[in-house]
UniProtKB/TrEMBL annotation, chain A:
Gene3D superfamilies given in the database record: Dipeptide-binding Protein, Domain 1, Dipeptide-binding Protein, Domain 3, Periplasmic binding protein-like II
Domain Solute-binding protein family stretches: 84-465
GO cellular component: ATP-binding cassette (ABC) transporter complex; periplasmic space
One Gene Ontology biological process: peptide transport
Composition bias type Gly residues, residue spans: 26-36
Record keywords: Signal
Disordered as annotated region, ranges: 26-56
Organism taxonomic ancestry: Bacteria, Bacillati, Actinomycetota, Actinomycetes, Kitasatosporales
Single GO molecular function: peptide transmembrane transporter activity
Protein name: ABC transporter substrate-binding protein
Entry-linked CDD domains: PBP2_NikA_DppA_OppA_like (cd00995)
Automatic annotation (TrEMBL), chain B:
Protein name: ABC transporter permease
Residues spanning the membrane: 12-31, 98-119, 131-154, 174-192, 224-249, 275-300
Subcellular location: Cell membrane
Record's GO cellular component terms: plasma membrane
Similarity comment: family membership: Belongs to the binding-protein-dependent transport system permease family.
Amino acid sequence: MRGATHAKWAAGAVAVALAATACGGGGDSGGGGDGSGIVRSSWGDPQNPLEPANTNEVQGGKVLDMIFRGLKRYDPKTGEAKDMLAEKIDTSDSQNFTITVKKGWTFSNGEKVTAKSFVDAWNYGASLKNNQKNAYFFGQIDGYDKVHPESGSQSADTLSGLKVTGDDTFTVKLNQKFSTWPDTLGYAAFAPLPKMFFDDHDAYIKKPVGNGPYTVDSYQKGSQMSLRKWDKYPGDDKAQNSGVDLKVYTDNNTAYTDLTAGNLDLVDDVPAAQLANVKSDLDGRYINTPAGIIQTLAFPFYDSDWNKADSDKVRKGLSMAINRKQITDSIFEKTRTPATDWTSPVLGEKGGYKEGLCGEFCDYNPAEAKKMIQEGGGIPGGQVQIGYNADTGSHKEWVDAVCNSINNALGNDKACVGSPTGTFADFRNKITDKKMTGPFRAGWQMDYPLIQNFLQPLYYTNASSNDGHWSNKEFDSLVDKANAESDQAQAVKIFQQAQEVVRDNMAAIPLWYQNGSAGYSDKVDNVALNPFSVPVYNEIKVK
Amino acid sequence: MGRYVIRRLLQMIPVFIGATLLIFLMVNVMGDPIAGLCGDKACDPATKAQLSKEFGLDKPVWQQYLTYMGNVFTGDFGTAFNGQKVTELMSTAFPVTIRLTIVAILFEIVVGITLGVITGLRRGRPIDTTVLLLTLVVISIPTFVTGLLLQLLLGVKWGWIEPAVSTEATFSELIVPGLVLASVSLAYVTRLTRTSIAENKRADYVRTAIAKGLPRRRVITRHLLRNSLIPVVTFIGADVGALMGGAIVTERIFNIHGVGYQLYQGILRQNTQTVVGFVTILVLVFLAVNLIVDLLYAVLDPRIRYA
């Protein structure tokens, strides 16, 4: 009997413990599956809620690209900004714009897309109280400093530079001349939003509603999103498949394994470890194309050691001591291309990419490198420490390789070492708090394919991503001049002049252009990556 | 016995507070997480300040901790950076990990104890030596090697299983990951049971039971095994918590969106709310399982009493 009572107690305790600790409702419902015509693609958990002005990374951007269409759209092949919902964008002075929205477009819930859909969305995106991480995209619009002051609380809820003038027209007043501004409107942050976004925000977050070729069929946060073709989509870039299932993978190696086992159709991030055998594994179904991403080494210009009169010679010398070709070949398996300017090949020559603009300073030349560094007064403190974050992206490998290259060139095995920071957030903290003591890794993924986007945010005095806090009056005035220039070709030319200033000062060392790499199964066809290294989902055909 | 349970439950309170405080401080030491939210670009200062305010990161740590604990007692574990309630994350992650843990524990109990009994009874025979060697191999191979190897062989080469577990993560899909997760502990359970059985085989009460003419089956299960299980139960009990928290490697390999994955994401994004929330629950699981294990002793050996 004694045993029996004990058992009862134990059973009671088990029940209590289970009730106390475990089991919120399970309730995972299956979404979609791999029926015919569905593309199964790998995905990463988006970092932020899927609001257009709040999404600043590729994974969330992927979805926005499928469910939203804005005034402009970047051609998936050339990157050229083409009118999408914009009937026309007029300006006479590069500062005041009149935008006419095409008629006949609706959101997938039936609401009409009007001028108001854009103005409301932009006001929402710019407003400080909504915490939108891409708010600065609206910084050029008049009145931004009122809705999004640098400190304190906002004194207005709407941008004074935006006015709805009719059902389909609205005007935009910028706070300075910016001739290529209309070309920035293809960025997801400028997407229109339906009224339900504002009326029932929680419902929108659970299941976003847009005006693109796909609709969200089901969304289980952190695990899967099923997108289905929207049959009533009015655009001419209709989906060529009946839907896309985005599956979140805990590890891109697992996604790759699933692809080789035939359970997945598309992996848009081939793990570094598999690059060597991806071609034979996938029988040629591997894409490796340039993307609008450049990796550079930025310098802490707030540190007087790095900002002396002759310091540019040290920076140039370091640049010449890096054997870019060897590193991109051996470590990255040719998924990077040695950089010879500060932009990206995806811009094309018309867009401002100029091969070889960096000239001899980006050529590997150990003897000259050593001489230059000595002329510049040697490496500050006797040792370069290259800062990077150790948690993601396997940066250690290439930083060590770069240091190795520098050490060999200088004939001193202590001239350069890597200086890791534990987490990405902490790395960013050190940068924004101006605590870097040596060069550090700086990656730039373009927001829109314009040469302006590769220069102004990175090197303009006090610009949003000028991590090195480099400042140069000549560069600033050239950028201002280029932005005011209404002739596109002329503007690009002036931007290139500005880039020459960056070169002559070696404001940052360009390392390499990054490629997008993707692999796909034999069940799908017509797979391509756009200049943002995102798969062009709507054009994929299922066999 | 009731008093014993209450005393144990009361003891949990300081352990619980201490553990959460430690985790809270540790995550905090890693620095300001907001900077990581804006990607490679710098957050603009106004948005950064606004976000810090929203997540309560602008207050001193002790105040953050008090607010957090206050909320936890009302069932509010805060919000993750992607706008999802942490409780929502838990409700999707914990059932999956609990299923995985159940599979693993079942393997440990069924396979581990059976092998332990067989080898314990046949000490020194070929089967004993074989199993001992096998367990040695299993213990010495790291989990991720076993995991990746099984995934490659069973999933890709032979096509017996799907290499990645689906969103639903049903029991049948979790068999192989569960086996991988259990493998090392399974070997320990086998060895523990074997030793314990071999030791007790010569005990007086076993000889008495045999002398009474009880059937062999009954002698082994009711007399020998029951008395030999105490160390094994202790080990398995402690293992429940370890498996739930330590499933990160297995969950990554087999694409299981459970506790390990959420913790990993939480740490990578320095998301205090997620990490502390999940660890809090894991601490509770650990404490509860330990209590259950202690109570089970009395079931196995009635001489053990709780005053």
